[in-house]
Amino acid sequence: MSDMPETAAGTAVSGPGALWLALALAIGVYLVALIEEWAATGRVRPAVPLLGGLATLARESLVPRRPDRLLFEAAAPLLLVAALLAAAVLPLGPGLVVADLATGALFVNAALAYVLVALIMAGWGPDGAYAMVAGWRFLGQLVAYGMLIVMPLAAVGMRAESLSTVAVVRSQAALPNALAQPLGFAIFWVAALAICFLPPLDLPVAPGELAGGVFGEYTGARLAVMRLARLVLVLTLASTIVTFYLGGWLGPTLPPWAWTAAKTLAVVAALLVPGRFLPRLRGEHLLAWSWQLGIPLALANILWVGVTLLLVE
Amino acid sequence: MTGARTGAATWLRRLAARALARDLPAFVAPDPATARALGLDLAEAGLRVVPTPRHAAVLVLVGELPEGLRRAAAVAYAQMPRPRAILAIGAGALDPLPEPDVAVPADQDTLARGVGDLRGILVVTSFSPGVAAFDAAAVRTERRYTCPMHPEIVRDAPGKCPICGMNLIPQEEAGGQTGHEGMAMDHGPGPGHGAMHDASGGAAGVDYTCPMHPEVSSAVPSSCPICGMDLVPRDAQVAGPTHNPAEDQPTEAAPGGYTCPMHPEVSSDTPRSCPSCGMDLVPRRAPGTSGDNRAEHSAHTVAGDYSCPMHPEVTRDAPGSCPICGMDLVPRGKTGGGESTPLHSPANHRATPADDPPRPGGAVASGHAGHGDHGSASHSGRATTTAEGAGGVAHGAMGHGGMTATAPPHPAVPAAGHGVAVHAAPATGGADDPHDTPGLAAGDMAAMGQTTHGMGGMAHGGHDTGAHEMGDAGDMDHSMHAMGGFMSMVAMTRDLPRSRDGLPMEWAEVPFGPLSPGLPGGLALVLTLDGDVVARATRAAGPVRRGLVATWPGPRETFPDRFARLDPLTPVAYRLLAQRALETAAGLTLDAREARARVAALERERAASHLGWLAGFAELLGVGWLAERSAALQLALARAADPDALVPLHGEALRLAAGVERLPLLRRRLAAIGRPGEAAERRGPVARAAGVTADARAADPAYRALGFAPLVREGDDALARLLVRLAEIGQSLDLAIAAGDGAAAAPPPRHGTDGGERGTATLETPRGAATLHLLLDAGTVREAHLDAPSGGHAPLIAAVAEGRELADALVGIASLDLSPWELDR
Questions:
Q1: Separation of alpha carbons B709 and B603, rounded Å
Q2: CA of B673: which chain A residue's CA is closest?
Q3: Beta-strand relationship, B141-146 and B25-29
Q4: What's the pLDDT score for residue B351?
Q5: Which of B80, B317, B653, B808 sits at a 20 to 30 Å CA gap from B478?
Q6: CA–CA separation, B526 vs B509, rounded Å?
């Protein structure tokens, strides 16, 4: 892998990067599925994700009686594409990135905005009340987390003096952002939980309330795509946290890709485990906390980062 | 295998079948707690419980299911993707479900073997070239077409309305009380399922039919086999399929009983056409035809008072558009709708007896419950605000249609038209029949390709009577639509009911249960959703109705056994209640040893019942850890053979309770949820969570000897109920251990040989005090009257749910720990 320039200009797409990313995603998704099962049951059974996936594919893929066919069909692929697009600008190692955009951090945010679109489509498409309520719930959730994902990213960009993800990673050589901007790290973590609607922020799925919510009407191959997209989304968000806050591939002794992998999987586990011990948040509480507490804190974070940058440099 | 997927067995399919056999997502009816109560561990047997039939491959039926639940399970089965299988555990009759692929008795070892057999079956027969479709009456759907303006027009095919020329819109009715009715129900183009859509019902020459399921017909008054509602005389079905389910009173056209839907001033004794517009006159039903609606509303709309829904300061003498925002002005009733509503107290919403289908009075009251907030402090202080103006419209749309000439017009009612005197008077006002007139707005929404949710047109027609309320403006919209003209969102949503925040929304009636995860299996609710706020919450009676009361009279020796079938999750409590009532009648007293044995058995069951509730409640809240721990503890308790085995469980229960107290965010999540209001009746843990020391055990000498004192918490919310039940789990296990031996064996039945005519006993069941009155005659039970705690709590459903966000409403309802078995006997 040849080193890419520190801040790439333009939109050069790296072919080897795409291959490596595809491989990393394939393995990563499998591992995320394993971790998910471990978090839920405490057991690790290596064959279960593969068998479960194959079984889901083998079942009928039903179309509800009166679907909005376009939305129903397009939702799962869109969710997958949104997650993949975001993953494409996240570096696995020095030079190991599909597209090192100058606006990488913004691009992540823009790609993840389609998660909302996909979930609302999945909620509206099947013509079922549970799914519809679940889809609109996610809109409320976006209103809560939307600012909390942009504002910490702005602070990260301030420190790197760039929005390129590669530059952001390199800016953490001395100190990872998780330590340099702990407030932003915490806020971004919550926002990441909200984007991939993991418990306790799984309002659009809500198994005990809405019987699967936006996933509730999907079966067979369509469900398999939906679940795959969700796994990729979790992986992407974990990778985003690693890139922006945990120093990406940086680390001693081990090769860069190993650091990326280890950090990402650790973040995946840390995203998945706490949900078992927390009740699902009420939508109004999430909104209130996000706006009354989260946004002032995010502003304080930006101020803090600005002051430290002025004083240190 | 009846649930095989069509397809020849290629090598790829054989491979897939092996994967299918290894992955067994299961949907459980009635609920997983029932399986655990029988000592069955589904996960250990290899089944992975999922919350929706859509994601399940195995339908697990636990215990004997009443017919209504079997029908719900049949719908759930129809929703499952093939290949799908049925595993029956200790089940009796399964009709209308197909034969189970594997049937085992309720025993863990045989269950594990049965799951093994099921895997073998799946490997071999998951795919099969010729598959018979699953077709049962319970899952049939019929599609008819109706006119949005003229619900009496119902056709089998799409076309134009003969009266107004509008396009007919599809109107679907699910034939079954579905397991997951919130979902679109069946398979669409799947092989063999297309036929379901074409079934048409309605035999001629019969007298009674279901208000919800017009295809049901019966020569005698009985309950609907689909939803369990009482059948009504067919001639009451004036409005056809969009009939209000709450309506069970026949109504007849009064003299001068025909009127024009568009011109209410037109009145005729015979059906003919309107002299003004030529439309066919429709029967003016005593309550709530569209014509009456308008007549009433024009009566209490002050002439020349038009206002902007967004800018209440804008008032005009004539309809027009707002100079500020351009919205169409709406008539503003002098009654407002936002003023205080002193007569609109929550207590009045609870007029519906628990065991009866909703009556008109109850329907009216609950119909208004969603608007109770208009009397709240936040609104009452302002004379006219945006929300209130809109709310006034909503009130007009919703409830006032029920008024007739026999009811006083609004200005006569001091409380701005909200008086209970008007609304809760079925004798004069009759049913406020929101389903009577599917509104223009709903029709338009459907016609424009907006989906209608839940049960199709029926879900929506109900709340749109207000379409007629706008007088001339409504007429204009109507003609606009007939011409296919453009209709703005403002015009479309103008007549929809308004939420608290003033947003016009389509309301949707969404069924939750009887197989909903997070609610007790068998409990069927119908929540009317206004966005994600529950505007109205009612219980749909029927899924577990078994006609038990009729089996109670009989020989006294077997009465406790018959009576104990009441609730399969608390058989001990009801057996003991029956025994005690018989003993009271015979004048017998218990010796101390037997009294202690009964305490042990009862307390053990209480702990198990609370743990089962806790697991479901945790599932609803999404706390996986708690759901798992309490489920494991419930299972261990069900399996514990002797009193010594209870000691470690007691320790575990205390640790669980301590762990729950430490869970972050839980208190915030539950505080202030599920408060039913002052006047509500409370029993058992619900009462003790409201600071009331109501406990029938306190009067029992056997309990006093063990040092029993009721555990009480303050708060009267879901949190307090959780804490009370957590504490009671530990207390009950403590009592069971202290009461000592005999806990495992059921106490021997005791019968008096002779004795009194009457026996009454009260016993603290896990859900609260139950009282049984017996009338005996020569060793035979003649009459038995039971007052069960869930019956007392059923009216709280509306009180804790209405006006709440959906998740909070469900948590509030679940915190009551209702037993559907006690409610539907």
A1: 14
A2: A282
A3: unpaired
A4: 32
A5: B317
A6: 6
